C-alpha cells in the first residue's frame, strides 16, 4: 500500500488497476492483524444470563461487542453514546482553527450501506474474530443462505439466491454492520501505522484518524495531497472486499486552513 500511495501522489492520471489490486492484497493481509485473543470470552456469560436462562442472539452479541469494535465507533455499542463522536469532531475543528493547523475531513456516505454488505466478507470477518461454531451455523441459516423472489404484475418470480445485504428492521443487523465496518477502521489504523496516512495530531500522545457513527464515517487527517490519495486507497480497498461503495455525490470534503483548490478536489477521489 505504501508503494501505491507514493505512486498515485505524483498525479491524478495513469492506470490504477494494478495499484488497486495491490491495495486489495494489503487489506487482506491487514485483516490478519485482528486480535482474536479478546474473543475467547467465557462461554457461560455468552450463552446464559445470570439467572440461568438462555440469552437471545442479540444479548449474546451485545455481551462481547465492546471487545470487538474500536473506540472510534460510538453507535449501538453498550456504554457508548453517539453524541460522543459529534463532540469530538466539534472539538477537533475548534482546535484546528485556534492553532491554524491544516486539516482534512471527509464525511463518507456509503451507497445503500445495509443492502451492499458482501456476505463472503462478513463471513470472513466473523471467522477471523473467532466466533463460535454454533454462532456461525446460525448466521449461515439466517443470513448467508437467504433467497427471495420478486413480484412482477402481481405474480412472483422464481426464487434466486441473494449474495449481499442485511435485512432492514432486523435488530441483529446494526451489530453485524458494525462488525463489517470494523474492517475500515482497522485498515485506516494500519495506514497510519505504516505512515501512509497521517491523522490529526492533538498532542504527541493523542491523534485522530477516523470516527464512526454506525454507517456514517468521518476520516480526519493532516491537510495534504498525500493524505487525499491515501483516503482514496483506503476507501477503494475497503469497497473491493466489503461491497460498501462510497457515494461521492453525497460525501463531503472539508478543508481547514488549506488552499482552496485542494479543498474542492473531492471529485479526484471518485
From TrEMBL:
Keyword Nucleotidyltransferase: yes
PROSITE patterns: RT_POL
Keywords (A to Z) from UniProt: Nucleotidyltransferase, RNA-directed DNA polymerase, Transferase
Domain Reverse transcriptase: 1-266
Keyword Transmembrane helix in annotation: no
Matching InterPro entries: DNA/RNA_pol_sf, RT_dom
GO molecular function, one term: RNA-directed DNA polymerase activity
Protein name in the entry: LINE-1 reverse transcriptase like
Organism for this UniProt entry: Trifolium medium
Lineage, top ranks: Eukaryota, Viridiplantae, Streptophyta, Embryophyta, Tracheophyta
Amino acid at each position: 500500500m505504501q508503494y501505491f500511495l507514493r505512486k498515485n501522489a505524483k498525479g491524478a492520471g495513469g492506470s490504477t488497476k494494478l495499484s488497486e489490486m495491490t491495495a486489495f492484497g494489503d487489506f487482506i493481509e491487514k485483516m490478519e492483524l485482528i486480535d482474536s485473543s479478546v474473543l475467547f470470552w467465557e462461554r457461560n456469560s455468552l450463552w446464559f444470563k445470570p439467572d440461568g436462562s438462555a440469552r437471545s442472539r442479540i444479548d449474546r452479541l451485545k455481551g462481547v461487542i465492546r471487545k470487538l469494535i474500536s473506540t472510534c465507533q460510538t453507535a449501538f455499542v453498550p456504554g457508548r453514546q453517539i453524541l460522543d463522536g459529534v463532540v469530538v469532531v466539534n472539538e477537533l475543528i475548534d482546535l484546528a482553527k485556534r492553532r491554524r493547523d491544516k486539516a482534512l475531513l471527509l464525511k463518507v456516505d456509503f451507497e445503500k450501506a445495509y443492502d451492499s454488505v458482501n456476505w463472503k466478507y462478513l463471513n470472513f470477518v466473523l471467522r477471523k474474530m473467532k466466533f463460535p461454531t454454533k454462532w456461525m451455523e446460525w448466521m449461515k441459516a439466517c443470513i448467508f443462505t437467504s433467497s427471495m423472489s420478486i413480484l412482477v404484475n402481481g405474480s412472483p418470480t422464481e426464487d434466486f439466491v441473494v449474495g449481499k445485504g442485511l435485512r432492514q428492521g432486523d435488530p441483529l443487523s446494526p451489530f453485524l454492520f458494525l462488525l463489517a465496518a470494523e474492517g475500515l477502521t482497522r485498515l485506516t489504523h494500519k495506514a497510519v501505522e505504516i505512515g501512509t496516512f497521517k491523522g490529526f495530531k492533538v498532542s504527541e500522545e493523542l491523534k485522530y484518524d477516523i470516527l464512526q457513527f454506525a454507517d456514517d464515517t468521518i476520516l480526519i487527517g493532516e491537510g495534504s495531497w498525500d493524505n487525499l490519495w491515501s483516503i482514496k486507497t483506503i476507501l477503494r480497498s475497503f469497497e473491493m472486499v466489503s461491497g460498501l461503495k462510497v457515494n461521492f455525490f453525497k460525501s463531503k470534503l472539508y478543508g481547514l486552513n488549506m488552499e482552496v483548490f485542494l479543498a474542492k478536489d473531492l471529485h479526484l477521489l471518485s
